[in-house]
Design brief:
Distance between the termini: 59 Å
Number of strands: 14
Helix content: 55-70%
Largest sheet: 4 strands, mixed
Strand content: 5-15%
Structural class: mainly alpha
Strand order of the largest sheet: 4-5-8-6
Number of helices: 23
Amino acid sequence: MVEANRSEPPAELPSTPQRGDTGDAAAPEKRDIYPAGPDGALPSVQATHEYRLRVVLVLVSLLSFVALYLALLAASGYLVYLTLVEMRWLPGKGVILNLGAIAGSGMLFLFLLKGLFHSRPFSSKGLVEVTEHDQPRLFAFLRRLCEDAGSRLPGKVYLSHDVNAAVSYPQSLLSLFWPVRKNLVVGLGLVSALDLSELKAVLAHEFGHFSQASMKLGQYVYIANGVVADIVFGRDAWDRAIQQWRRADIRLSFPAWILSGVVWVLRKLLELVFRAINLANLSLARQMEFNADLHAVRLAGSDAIVSGLWKAERAALAYRDAVGGLASVAEHGKFSEDVFVHVERSLTQLDTRLGKAPDARDRFGPILARYERGPALHFTSPAERVSSLWASHPPNHEREANAKRVYVAAPTDGRPAFELFVKRKALRKRMSRVVYEALGYESLGRKARELLPAEEVAALVEEERGEMRQAEHYHGLYENRVLDPGDIDAGAAALDADAASGALDRGALRAAVLPFTGEALKERMARLDKLRGERELIEALTDDRVRLKGKTADFRGEARSRDGIVALAAEVQRELKAELTALAETDQAFFRHFYACSADDPAARAELLERTRFLVTIQKLVVRHNALEEALESVCRRLGHGAELNEHEFRRLTGVLDAARSALVETVDALKPISPPKLALLKRGTLLHRFVVPDRVVDPLPEGGISGAWINELLQQHAGALGRLRKLHFKNLGQLLALTERLDPALFPAQEPREGGMGAGNGSIETSSPTNGTDPDEI
């Protein structure tokens, strides 16, 4: 059993704390810390045929790589021997050929040899290590879980701030031959959403990985990937030396040119090996997840792991939503002392907010539906027409089917998982600082006065979000679209002239906008959303990002093949353009109507003009940076794949990077003379250029090569500026819409504000990669 701790029995837990209990002191009454598992003897977890088959596949691919790599290394070493010992030295100037051959063969040998020295130590950035002295309850829990799982305790335990639990370990050649204790990472964003039974299941899943012999194969794959990645994709001193050599006189540099060709062929060959190993490992990784889930079922029952998956999905959305709001107000110097209060708050609002999103039941059905214990399946096979080509984990419906193939009942311990931690208030504050550091606020000091009470910050988040919300009666009219009010000054002058001459017909102006209200607007926006969805599907199929689940899919009322759907691209684009053109004309009609309505209210007219001009200015900047963001994402994908760049591609890369930097400089200059209208949390008279680009724009492209640090700094600066420009746009748009509703209250019925789904328009950060196919002309 668990060893006792002198200061506090580690196998016991205070009774459930009353409201306001922070966990800083233990209550006198104690209860067992460890949730009960299934009744009876714990069944063993057997590896399936599919599991063993994929282990063999990975082993074969790894052995093939090792054989190929050692053969290439031996051949290059033998070539060095031949040039040094066996090759006859040529007379006179012919000795240059001998020296060139020796140098070339030696460089080829070093090129292959350097992969053996690949090392990638475990990174604890963004993590906080805790010990048994820090968290005795947690370690007592882990000891009993390891005892039941038949696993060793983790070498180290780290806490992260996000929704995650994972196994990690240092990676080096030594770790392949010398046992290395694996580390456990537990995310407090996940802990805040789970009860004790669910956390037990989640951690049992991770300890299932600890006990998997195939985890060793994962280490071998990782090392092999590191060796191949260094050789194929890495660019270091070796490459710089070859580049310098090629710049010499051709009589001296010809071996470098020959060697460059040989290395190019080797890199392409090893790249194929790299992809083959990863494909094999990907299929094994899925089986390892199924196997680890069965370890969780063995110790906690079928319901706990499935319920944990359900809550993890919800927690991830809530976390993204909460941190997005916090990131937004942090730009105004407001920081919360407890990020997890906001995550928990977002969890309580999740069903309401998700329920208001378009097609909520289709998009979030299993997340919105309450999980019911029992053998019935909660997650169902998704009904989408397409599926992702690459997935590192099985989908939830497959994992649930695996966990309930033989249903195992177990009692539920509904106490919050956070009760495993002592000194919770201090811990949550410490991890909150880690969140802000991850958001880029690394200079945030350590003084408590810099952090505000969570409720105070929550009110600020709500104030800013409320400013950006759009009422339901707009049906998304002002979302993801560039607004076109026309020439504001010319339009206002024409209306003033008509009013002065008595020719202004306010009834006609109002009649022009009525077709874009009520049910007519709802139908039009539904048609626009459908066209956008069709375009996104066609683009994804064209780029091979997705594939049809069958040979055909229903598209525009007919079963069509992939080619049949893609063939309709021009038709879909033509219809979409027509709809957007009609909406642009409507923008001008709305401006004329509301300008006429403000005739008797000079203050409202002045605000209407100020906000409309501000909208046009910010929109132009957003559209420009949107286009650059798409180009930068393309560049990052290219660099991320480690592809070799030819001269043309390199020039395009530098051109995109230089254009992004120039856009930042020009944005700063464009914003200097502009004062923002009144906006929540933004003080009147704020220097707008310093708000959008707080730091000095990154230096121009460095000569003699582009460093990864320079690219990262530029990308972060560009993404930050674009995010703040978008926020300014939606904040001002929200105030502008509120003004127009005051000018003509009867035009739209009073309804609840439109939430726009979790994180829409509120500066939320994404946990996944950016969406592909974004139209740069959308906001």
